[in-house]
Amino acid sequence: MKKLSLSLFSFALLLATVAPPESMAGQRRRVVVRRAPVIVHRPVARTGLVVRNGYPIRRVLPSTVVVRPAHRVVAVGAPLVFLPSLVWAPRVVVMPDRERLVWQDSERINRDEGWVDTNFGIDQSGNALYLDINGKAELNFAEVTFANGNVQVVDFNDRTHGPGVYKLLDFADGRRVMTVRLLAMSESEDTTLGVYLSK
Fold first, then answer.
1. Nearest-CA neighbor of 152 among 127, 169, 133?
2. Which residues of the chain have pLDDT under 70?
3. Sign of dihedral through CA atoms 51, 53, 55, 61?
4. Alpha helix (H) ranges present in the chain?
5. Which domains does the chain have, with CATH numbers?
6. For a designed S-S bond to 188, which of 25, 82, 136, 143 qualifies (C-beta 3.0 to 4.6 A apart)?
7. What is the pTM (predicted TM-score) of this model?
8. What is the Cα–Cα distance from 183 to 138, expressed in whole angstroms?
9. In this structure, what DSSP letter does residue 156 have?
10. Which residues make Cβ contacts (< 8 Å) with residue 119, sequence separation at least 6?
11. Which residues contact 47 (CB under 8 A, 6 or more apart)?
């Protein structure tokens, strides 16, 4: 019995050393299947658009929007006062140097959502706001709220704008910006809206 076991062990050892390396490699080869990433579309919850008393835009605004929660909640301590609205003159500009940028954030919207109401909490001082559009978006309005409670509404007049960096608002005297609210609708599959504050 012991002799038989020793013979079988020797035969197995001989077979392992004589077997071609290709057959061993074939046994070790693993097939890796990569799947395409799954894109999950969450259900879109629409709600009525909320504007406060004294809102300076008089045209009909969208009745329902998708409200995005603010990335950072910023409270304004002063009573809000709407300034006369400014009609936006779009002009593609060069983004200021990184050293001059004091704050930035972005929001990604998609075509299926329709109008998206998004709010950026800033609470920083600067002298100009920039809007960076990556994609194509129809813009309705922006609200810029300052620390003293003044709210500057920028009227985009429901125009569609393509990719580029645009100056959103210039206040050369330097002011503390608390929040920026944007109402926009993506005209491409996805659009990223970046907001920057420079000094």
1. 169
2. 1-43
3. positive
4. 2-18, 21-28
5. 46-198 (2.60.120)
6. 136
7. 0.76
8. 9
9. E
10. 68, 69, 70, 179, 180, 181, 182
11. 64, 65, 66, 67
